[in-house]
Amino acid sequence: MSPEEGVLDEALLDRALSEAPDITLAMLVDLTAATDPRLRELALRLAGRIMIGMAKRSSNRRRGVGRMTLLSYEPEGGDIDIDSSLDAIGEMRRFGATETDQMKIRGWMKPSTALCLVLDRSGSMGGRPLATSAMATAAVANRFPSDYSVVVFANDVIIVKSQLVEKDPEVVMRDVLALRGFGTTNLSDALLAAELQLCQSRAGRKITVLLSDCRATVLGDVVAAAKDLDELVIIAPQSDDEEARQFGAKVGARVTTVSGPSDIPDAFAQLFD
What we know:
Layout (H helix, E strand, L loop, with lengths): L9 H10 L1 H11 L5 H23 L7 E6 L6 E2 L1 H14 L8 E6 L3 E8 L6 H17 L4 E6 L3 E5 L7 H9 L9 H13 L5 E7 L10 H6 L4 E6 L4 H10 L2 E5 L5 H9 L1
Parallel strand pairs: 4-5, 4-7, 7-8, 8-9
Antiparallel strand pairs: 1-3, 2-3, 5-6
Helix pairs in contact: 1-2, 2-3, 2-5, 3-5, 3-6, 5-6
């Protein structure tokens, strides 16, 4: 795949992606730590471009979930709600007024949504696990571009992208791809950090998405931290999801699994569409 120093065969890469996407993405992510600076930079650019492209293609299929609610009157915006508009209709009849400011219609409204992505980098994080985290970052940046944050944790907690701070998605991806795994699992502090990030948002729906096996190894009240969140979704490794499912059952979180990075777009569609 690298026929000479600092070069990648992109045609071969495209074929490998179609035949074995998870293996290829894992290898590409490992190349982002290559000792050759030209190859490392090329791998970073390609990984970001490929994953953001995959996230965009997947999200084109999604349909937003809305709810019926009262809205201000707009022509052809919906059916007039008679009960809420009686006073305005009465005034129009008595005075012949044409003002519609007080009239209400029934229409569909999509609730605003904020999301905090929490990535576990404890233990071994390279190859497939890192590619999965990077793909999740691309999916979040594409679906919630104006109101999302990314928190990464092991023993410490790092805010890669703050909730209301604008940051180019490719830069966020590069920061995530620069991570390598080590240390213990401070899950309680990570969830507290997610809550603090989401508190900055004024969205009606606030979701924390946790990529982890949920095997906390640092003391802390993980259950209490999880229950303080508005909504928690857990994405666990398919081959190691038992503790994540037990934790999800304790705190009322939805749990799904992925076998690798290529499963992330479908997992997000399942969870949010």
